[in-house]
Amino acid sequence: MKDYHINIFYSEEDEGYIADIPDLKFCSAWGSTPEEAVREVMIAKAAWLETATAEGKSIPKPKYRPIIYQVG
After folding, report:
1. Structural domain boundaries of the chain?
2. Per the database record, which ranges form the HicB-like antitoxin of toxin-antitoxin system domain (predicted)?
C-alpha cells in the first residue's frame, strides 16, 4: 500500500518546521528540524487514524501527489 504524502516547510511565524499530511484533514505537526517535524507528524497520523477508526469514520486512501516543476 502507498503511504500518505508528507509536506514539510519552514514557518517564519512558528519559527520551526511544519509537516502535514494533505490526505488527512488537519493532520500536522511542528518541529525545530525537518526530521523532528516528520517524527511528530507520524505520531499525529497514528492518532488521526486511530481516532477515525474508533469513531467509525472513513479512512481516505493515499492519493495526494504534489506538482513537481522542472526548471531549465
Report:
1. 1-29
2. 4-63
